[in-house]
Specification:
The protein has about 100 residues and is mostly helical. The protein contains four helices and no strands. The protein is elongated, with a radius of gyration of 20 Å. It is a peripheral membrane protein. Its main location: mitochondrion.
Length: about 100
């Protein structure tokens, strides 16, 4: 099944629960991989002056700090979005009432 037929099936609501779960898991995996890619690109640009055979201690410390700040920021944003969603009704839920 290609992605266009699965997305149209999802839109119709006629999806097997196991397939729906599989799609959700795969979507989460994709988002995680995108996050790792973003973090890698950001930290590489910030911390790597000139690639060499070894990381110097300054670059290593920069990478560690960059990754920790990226994770902290991502977690903060997710928590904030979660709080916002809990305080406001979801648009689709308000339509079903």
């Amino acid at each position: 099944m290609d992605s266009s037929s699965s997305s149209s099936a999802v839109g119709l609501g006629a999806v097997d629960p196991q397939l729906q779960h599989f799609i959700e898991v795969e979507t989460q995996k994709q988002r995680f991989q995108q996050l790792v890619h973003q973090m890698t690109e950001l930290c590489w640009e910030k911390c790597m002056d000139k690639p060499g055979p070894k990381l110097d201690s300054r670059a290593e410390a920069c990478f560690v700090n960059c990754v920790e700040r990226f994770i902290d920021t991502s977690q903060f944003i997710l928590n904030r979005l979660e709080q916002t969603q809990k305080s406001k009704p979801v648009f689709s839920e308000s339509l079903s009432d």
